[in-house]
């Protein structure tokens, strides 16, 4: 358990330095100046969570992991997300630029050879292979190949989680809480998977990421002293997706643990498109907004709800096959959709 303890302590102790530095530079999100509808906090606070997560994970990885080309690519992509996150903390950059830089980080990871080669067959035993078709070419003195379907699926999976999870950070402690839990379950699964192509221990990396978000949770829990910002939000989906792929394409398991934020994201995209709006511009229609505005839930209760449900779904995923996980995801999505539609009609 040393990886999770060390990353937790680094994150826990580095966050106050980021808070102090951001406040000194006046890089704070002040609700008195930021009147966007999605804002729920009442006191000014720095974002900067991405910087905390990146440094805690990187420093811990230097202690516990063997660096190979896969891990180098992972951290190169993470560095891009962190830099963009810091810029967004200061200037609130356009979401389309964030989308493009997120795609760049994803392409670096997939280009290193991290892809979804197969998924479990939900209709029967065995797996569905994604290694065909292949694009073969000669580059830098070597024969190389790109597994087109595998790469496209991996790109979509990583990009999807990066953006969807980033939307579920509207209240104090919400995002680091359920991400911490999700990484723990991925660590359990990765520990039982022995065929990862990487030279580093995937389970240890999952524990490191979990510990980093646990340290951020201490400072982000109500009343928050620091906000995750785009940096921590994008890194959450990024690390979770990469860890799921390296753990043996645990796509269904990851989507099950993240079923509530994922269902909220699907509904949000659909709702915005039907309203003729861009799906990438924020509003006050997320699940956490409705729990707060229409049912009077406090920030602590919403955070505990996300942590508890992620833990429950993660625990159930350990005992379900792929078909059972898909059914569970559909059931959760049904209840989330029904709740949000009810609130829409009620309004």
Helices, strands, pairings?
Layout: H1 2-24, E1 28-29, E2 45-46, H2 49-64, H3 69-91, H4 95-111, E3 118-120, E4 127-129, E5 134-139, E6 142-147, H5 148-167, H6 174-191, H7 202-220, H8 229-246, H9 251-257, H10 259-274, H11 287-293, H12 299-317, H13 322-346
Antiparallel strand pairs: 1-2, 3-4, 5-6
Helix pairs in contact: 1-2, 1-7, 2-3, 2-7, 2-8, 3-4, 3-8, 4-5, 5-8, 5-10, 6-7, 6-8, 6-12, 7-8, 9-12, 9-13, 10-13
What does this structure look like?
This protein is mainly α and 347 residues long. The protein has one domain. It contains 13 helices and six strands. The strands form three sheets. A two-stranded antiparallel sheet has the order 1-2. A hairpin with a 2-residue loop joins strand 5 and strand 6. The chain is globular, with a radius of gyration of 20 Å.
**What is the terminal-to-terminal distance?**
48 Å
The H/E string reads HEEHHHEEEEHHHHHHHHH
Uncertain parts: none
- Global Rg: 20 Å
Helix content: 55-70%
Looking across the biggest beta sheet, what order are the strands in?
1-2
For the largest beta-sheet, the strand count, sense and barrel status come to: 2 strands, antiparallel
> What is the domain total for the residues?
1
Strand content: 5-15%
- The overall average pLDDT, rounded, is 89
Overall, the morphology is globular
Counting DSSP E segments of at least 2 residues, the number of strands comes to: 6
The structural class is: mainly alpha
């Amino acid at each position: 358990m040393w990886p999770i303890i060390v990353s937790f302590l680094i994150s826990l102790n580095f966050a106050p330095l980021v808070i102090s530095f951001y406040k000194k530079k006046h890089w704070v999100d002040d609700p008195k100046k930021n009147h966007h509808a999605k804002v729920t906090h009442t006191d000014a606070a720095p974002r900067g969570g991405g910087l905390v997560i990146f440094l805690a994970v990187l420093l811990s990885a230097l202690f516990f992991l063997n660096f190979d080309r896969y891990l180098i690519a992972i951290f190169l992509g993470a560095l891009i997300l962190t830099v963009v996150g810091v810029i967004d903390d200061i200037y609130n950059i356009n979401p389309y630029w964030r989308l493009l830089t997120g795609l760049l980080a994803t392409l670096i990871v997939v280009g290193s050879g991290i892809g979804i080669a197969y998924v479990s067959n939900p209709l029967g035993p065995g797996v569905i292979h994604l290694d065909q078709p292949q694009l073969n070419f000669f580059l830098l003195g070597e024969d190389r190949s790109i597994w087109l379907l595998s790469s496209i699926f991996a790109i979509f999976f990583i990009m999807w989680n990066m953006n969807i999870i980033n939307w579920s950070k509207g209240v104090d402690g919400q995002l680091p809480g359920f991400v911490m839990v999700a990484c723990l379950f991925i660590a359990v699964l990765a520990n039982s998977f022995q065929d990862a192509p990487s030279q580093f221990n995937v389970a240890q990396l999952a524990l490191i990421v979990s510990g980093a978000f646990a340290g951020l949770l201490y400072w982000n829990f109500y009343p928050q002293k620091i906000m995750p910002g785009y940096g921590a939000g994008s890194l959450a989906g990024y690390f979770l997706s990469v860890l799921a792929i390296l753990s043996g394409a645990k796509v269904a398991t990851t989507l099950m643990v993240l079923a509530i934020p994922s269902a909220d994201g699907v509904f949000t995209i659909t709702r915005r498109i039907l309203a003729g709006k861009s799906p990438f511009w924020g509003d006050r229609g997320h699940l956490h907004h409705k729990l707060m505005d229409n049912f009077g839930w406090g920030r602590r209760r919403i955070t505990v709800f996300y942590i508890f449900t992620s833990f429950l779904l993660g625990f159930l995923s350990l005992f379900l096959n792929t078909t059972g996980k898909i059914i569970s995801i559909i059931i959760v999505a049904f209840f989330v959709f029904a709740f949000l539609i009810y609130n829409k009609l009620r309004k």
